Structure formats: structure tokens, C-alpha cells
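Dear colleague,

As promised, here are the two records you asked about, laid out in our usual form so they can be pasted straight into your sheet.

NAME FIELD: protein one
SEQUENCE, THEN STRUCTURE:
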Amino acid sequence: MRLEGKAAVVTGGGSGIGQAIAWALAAEGCKVMVAGRGKEQLAETAAKQSSILTCQADVGNREQVAALFQEAGYRLGQIHILVNSAGINVPKRMMHELSGEDWDRMFAINVTGAFNCMREVLPQMRERRDGVIINISSTSGKRASLLGGVGYNASKFAMTALGTSVALEDGRNGVRVTTICPGEVETPILKNRPTPPTAEHRARMLQPEDVAAAALMVACLPPRANVAELIIKPTTQDYA
């Protein structure tokens, strides 16, 4: 139980990568609160581990994020680990078809949501001079691609820069920030692809538990060690 006595907040915890990370942290003794917009999905995550609690929240809504961390503090105490895993994409993602509303929503969740959560948790981490923040970005946040689309690429580049900036500011305060950039992962976000991937393609993708294993490794490192960025991709996916 490498994380016994620790507490974590995981956003996007109702499915996919966030759900898998919540389960991995809880299996190592961590108390976890998962947050997301879907009540039923959050309940499904919590049903697997008795140490997982739930809180409905839209990370793009600053008031709801403040309420989330107030609830987390009340029920879990100090928060040692924050995982920003909430993220969306849209089907119409090319520049000529991307709507302003979809652009705004992607930035609200993918970037502002991470900012809102980090802003809430950082004061206690600085005071304690200890804390781990794991941002789930994407290889689209390192190499822009047609697959990700204009808004998703831009938002994930911004998320990566956000994590780097906070690490530069607060590394000396004992706060460790890691940006994990997965390639293709078999998660519900795939339903928003313009062309759904085939079953054969899905079988070659990463699974959520693969990314969770990487996040768990980061969370279990000693305070002296920080992974600044971690790229994890399917073996068959190009990255150059």
C-alpha cells in the first residue's frame, strides 16, 4: 500500500483514463474523490473501491470547482495528489467547421478546468511543501495533428504549457507537476471522432489502465523525484 495515508482528487473520474487512475490510486491505499458531470458514471467508479468518494462538478465552472475542493477537504482532509483528467473533443474539429461554442467549451474543460483545480489545491501544497499534480494532456499537446483537430490541439498545447509554468514556479516549494501525454487510448472520447475507429484499430490502442500505470508510478515517487513530462503511446503509433 504505497499511498496509504494519502488523499487524491481525480477529475474526469467517471470513465476512461480518470476512472482507471482512480482505481489504481485506491488499490494502493489512497483515499480518492472522483469528480465529473455524470452522476451515474461517478457511482460506477466508486462501486469498485470503498475508498472512492464522488462529487458532481463541471471543472469549467469555477464555483463548482471551489465547492468540489471544499467537499474534498471536509471528507478527505488534506489533498496530496491532484489528477486533471477531464477532457473533451468534438466531431466537427477542422478549422472550417469548428464552431466558436465548441472552441470555448474545449478550452473551458481542457485548460481552464485544470487551472481552476490547480488554483484551489496549490495553496495547501505550498504550505505543506509537498504535493503531486498530474495533468493528462495528449501527444496532440506536443505534436499538432489533423486527428486531434484545431481546438483540441490548441487546448492540449495550452494545458502542457500550464503544467510547465506551474512546475517552474512551485517546484522549489516542493510541488511536483507532471504532464502525461498519451497517444491513442481506447476511451469514450472516441465516440466524438468524425470517423469511428475500427475494432482492429481500437485493439492496437493503449488501454486506460496503461495510462493509469504511468500515473501511479509518478504518484509513488519520493518527494525528491519528479517526472516533468511523460509520453506514452501505442507501439504502432508514430511519434516523430
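NAME FIELD: protein two
SEQUENCE, THEN STRUCTURE:
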Amino acid sequence: MGDILKIGKYEFTSRLIVGSGKYPDFQTTYDATIASGAEMITVAVRRVNITDPNKENLLDYFKDSDVQFLPNSAGCVTAEEAVTLFRLVKEATGIDIIKLEIIGDTQKTLYPDVIETVKACEILAKEGFTVMAYTNDDPIVAKRLEEAGAAAVMPLAAPIGSGLGIQNRYNVVFVKEAVKVPVIVDAGVGCASDAAIAMELGADGVLTNTAIAQAKNPIKMAEAMKHAVIAGRLSYLAGRIPKKPYATASSPSEGMIQF
């Protein structure tokens, strides 16, 4: 079946997940998503309509596609808020795969409240949700989320929307070593090379929104992200050569003609 990404009961061939925020309109959101090859798009339920059929609804643009919607709890600051939101989403749409996102610092860093996230994860997982949990790049917290029932952990690469790229490559590796569930690098990706690096470090996937939506040409950036994730994954699977302090000749020295 090839290199399949398994998240709970769901399977994907693409390891790129895209966001739906910051686009000028739903049509551009759709066009960029299709160009990216992503099979999953995350939607901030409090900001983008997917539950009210009487208003312009992003679901309508994707109704003939195979793209899976991934509702997220952006804007929630407590476990109670997030749990309530996802229960309503499931009731309205039937969607049970979710991105759990509870922000602790809403003013400056947008860093997650990991204590509330673990609490909500445990409740939602017991209720049958496939929980993908946004978190910091701490392997201890990642392990706690896995124990709480998370089907995937999503450590940030850098603050949301910053475009700074991966600020601590070691922690991505540490998180990957700490858990058995997929690790999706989320937040801070600024360009295609950032996505490739994340995949080369061993991440199982990458989620990016701002880097595509606010690029000068979102469609081209979406396509670039698609190829970067594929290239980074292949590079990781191929296995890089060891780093050495000095040069090593590419051609063998044995059998050289002596003059």
C-alpha cells in the first residue's frame, strides 16, 4: 500500500496537512489545498463556518473532493471550552477526527496550555474522538498526551504564524523518540525548505497554514510544500551519510594509474 500515514483509524497517502485561515476567500483556500496534494485541511471552528448550512460554508467547496476536514479548537483557552466545542462539531457534522488546540498565552507567543490540553485529550479520546494534539516541543508532554489517548502529537516548530522554521531540531527528534503515535510538526513553518527539514528529522508529517496562505503566490507555495514534504520523507527513509569534519574523495583511490 506504499508509505501510508496512519492516524488512529484514518489513513492518508499525503503527509502534508494544510490550514484554511488567512486566505482572501474560500475559492483560494480550495485551489491552494488541491495544489498542495494534502488530504486533510484544518479548520478553526470559531472562525470558519462549517456548521451553519444557511451561510457560506467551506464544506461546500470541498464536497466533491477527497479532502478530510480537521476541525480545530483555536480560540479555546480551557479544556471545558474545547470539549464542548468538539461535541457540538461532531453533532453538527459527524466529524470525529480533530485537532485539539488550547492556547495558554493568547497575547504574545500563542503557546499551548499543555495541562489543559492533556485534560481535554483524555476526555475526548474516551468519547471516541481521534485526537491530534497541538503541543510544545517537549518530549515529556508528548508522552503524556499519548498516554491520554492522543492519536498524533503536533509539536510546534516555532510560534504560530512566525515563519521562523524549526528552532530546536533536537526536540523534534526527542519527541519522535518519546512516542509511538505519529508526530506532525505544526506551527512556524515559513517556506518549503522548513517542511523538508522537518521530514528529514523524522517527523511523520507537517502542518502549515500561514506559509501558504500569505505567500505572494499561495498556489505555487502549496505545490512547493507538497514536493518538499515528499523529498524530505524520501531523504529520511534513504538515510543520510554521516557528517565528517574533513573531505572524503568521491572516487576510490584503489587502482589509480600512477604517473
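A couple of things worth noting about protein two: The longest helix spans residues 218-238. The beta strands are 5-7, 10-12, 16-19, 40-44, 68-72, 97-100, 130-135, 152-155, 184-186, 205-208.

Best,
R.
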